Amino acid sequence: MALIELRGVSGGYRSQPVFGPLDLIIPAGSRLALLGGNGSGKTTLLKVLLGLRAPLTGEVRWQDRPLASYPLAERARFAAYVPQQHRTGFGFFAEDIVAMGSDAGLIRPLPEERIARARAALAELGQEKLARRRMNELSGGQQQLVLLARALAQHTPVIVLDEPTNHLDWGHQHRLLALIHRLGDQGRTLIFSTHHPDHARRIADRCLLLREGALLADAACRDCLTDDSLSTLYPVDF
Amino acid sequence: MTVRLQLGALAVALTLLSLLGLALGPFPLSLSAIVHTLLQGPDAGGGFAHTILWEIRLPHVLGALLIGAALAMSGAAYQGMFINPLVSPEVLGVLAGAGFGAALGLLWSEQFWMVQLLSLGFGLLAVGMAVALAWRVGGEGALIVLVLSGMITGALFSALLSIVKYTADPYDKLPAIVYWLMGSLSQISWHNLAWAAPLLLTAMLLLLREGGRLNVLTQGDEEAKSLGVSVARTRLKIILLTTLLASITVMLAGMIAWVGLIVPHLARLMTGADHRRVLPFSALLGAGYLLLVDLLARSFTTVEIPIGILTALIGLPIFALLLARLGAAGWR
Questions:
Q1: Where are the domains of chain A?
Q2: Which CATH number fits domain B3-9+53-331: 2.60.40.2660, 1.10.3470.10, 3.40.190.10, 3.30.470.20?
Q3: Which of B222, B223, B273 sits opposite A90 (nearest CB)?
Q4: Contact yes or no for A44/A195 (Cβ under 8 A)
Q5: Alpha carbons B203 and B206: distance in angstroms, whole number
Q6: DSSP B199-248
Q7: Which of A24, B11, B42, B257 meets the CB 3.0–4.6 Å disulfide criterion with A6?
């Protein structure tokens, strides 16, 4: 069964299409990488399939049901989102931010358990030491890890990550990719955008290549991440 | 200090301030006289102390507590919602609208209920217009559009207020309007409190329940949505409750500035960023702050200085001290 399905979906801003229309079926347990140049529509596509932006045309379906029919709380228990850019106001502690993931989609928040769950998520990333640090005093990479911990604390079957390795140092990139791999082994469905074909090769089982909003390729990584397709995707000579 | 201890300490301080508020004034009352008279109940009648306490000071103190709490909590909610430490309840034009309504009421009629009704009505109308404009422009109430719409309606009602002042009789009506706009607790009576207090308390209780969602809103619209919070609905609810609170305070006591801006910062200094604590702390601190300022207004001069002047005069140095102490880091 398709966990997530896009039927003739296009997305963009104020009737200015950024991508699509495209059809897509994402089965449960997929590890899907999304590649494309700057402005090719990756982020918009991720937001539309999460329901954070309404599609311009077509329909997004989750588990054979129109996404539009899902209440927000139910969506938050189905898919977690790690954004590319984050801005936070006031001096929230990192564990407060992660605990927002623990509470997400619950009618009654977890008074005792929420912080424990937040700390467990930070520990999974080896970042317990960030718990009592203020979010606005962390580096870009550390913030990225906190946001990833928030998504883990959300305990969802689907995790969507927008360029998750963007601000990370080489060591953290390595650990993050290992973690994503592990989450996939646990049966979670992972959808992520990246600028690194190597990262896609390492952890994804399927790649979507997006060029100026159109689908250039949709296949297993080893089949579509070839020199030819990459030189079409990013106009460079190898 | 744990949160419970802090809340306990604040409650004790508030009780002591309230007792001082009942005791001090042109005719000081002793503690035993206060307790004795309060125990007699409102209908015992008779004595001078009884009249002062039950008819003047008690409604005055209760009014100060409620108005301070309502303004500070509205400010805290707005600062959270706009992810901006510099906004206060007037950002969507509520005070400008309410001020214009009250001035219109004073111009047209001598009836105080008319002044109050117009003040409430125009306060709600100003915010309604700002919100409607923002929604029409699009983005389901995107913050920057909302702020700009608030500036537009605020400027409109400020201009209208100037017209009312310009046309008002300079010997009779104009001073009444100017004094009223300066803010004063002297018009508060049981009659006012009887309907205003339940409304204020209900709106504050409802606002308290939004603390968790306010936290999530500070993460930005799309992230809040991905965390299961309806941004548009939460924002509307907070705007509605805050506008109601702010317009009722204007109705009861005119324009009292700075409480809604400064007190939430004190609350955050005590308890951190979490709005589930910032909201109740702001309410308690705001109640105490306004009562304290009111006490000063009544104690040091024979005439009661309009409280709106003092909240600014006393609030500004506190704000400057906070700024010096926290530096830029505390405001991010």
A1: 72-156
A2: 1.10.3470.10
A3: B273
A4: no
A5: 5
A6: HHHHHHHHHHTTHHHHHHHTT-HHHHHHTT--HHHHHHHHHHHHHHHHHH
A7: A24
pLDDT attached to residue B224: 94
- Is residue B332's pLDDT more than 50? no
- Are B212 and A154 in contact (CB < 8 Å)? no
For residue range B97-121, what is the model confidence (pLDDT) as tens digits? 999 998 999 888 778 788 888 988 9
Residue B103 CA to its chain's centroid (Å): 19
Does the beta-carbon distance from A89 to B332 stay under 8 Å?
yes
Task: Say if residue A21 is preceded by a cis peptide, omega within 30 of 0.
Answer: yes
Query: Residue A228 carries which side chain, given as an amino acid letter?
Result: D
User: Residue A83: what residue type?
Assistant: P
> B112-121: long-range contacts at Cβ-Cβ below 8 A with a sequence spacing of 24 or more?
B112/B187, B115/B180, B116/B192, B116/B251, B116/B252, B119/B247, B119/B250, B119/B251, B120/B247, B120/B248, B120/B250, B120/B251
pLDDT at residue B330 in the model: 53
Q: Across the interface, do A81 and B226 touch by the CB < 8 Å criterion?
A: yes
Question: Which tops the pLDDT comparison, A32 or B139?
Answer: A32
B226 contact residues in A (CB cutoff 8 A): 50, 52, 75-76, 79-81, 104
Check if the beta carbon of residue A205 is closer than 8 Å to that of residue A191. no
The mean pLDDT value of chain B amounts to 87
Query: Look-up: residue for tokens 């951190």?
Result: B272
**CA separation (Å) from B98 to A58, B238, B240, B303?**
46, 18, 15, 26
- pLDDT tens for residues B181-202? 888 888 888 988 999 999 999 9
A114 in reach of chain B (CB within 8 A): no
Amino acid identity, position B199: L
Which residue in the block uniquely carries the two structure tokens 């309606």? B153
Spell out the residues 6+ positions from residue B314 whose beta carbon is closer than 8 angstroms to its own. Answer: B293, B296
Chain A residue with minimal CA distance to B232?
A72
List the single residue in B80, B220, B227 with the smallest CB-CB distance to A76.
B227
Looking at residue B185, the DSSP 8-state letter turns out to be S
Q: Around A217, how many Cα atoms within 13 Å sit in the side-chain half-sphere?
A: 20
For residues B106 and B168, give the distance between their C-alpha atoms in angstroms, rounded to a whole number. Answer: 9
Coil, helix or strand for B92? helix
Determine how many CB atoms are found less than 10 A away from the CB of residue B148: 14
pLDDT of residue B327: 63
**ipTM over the 0.90 cut-off:** yes
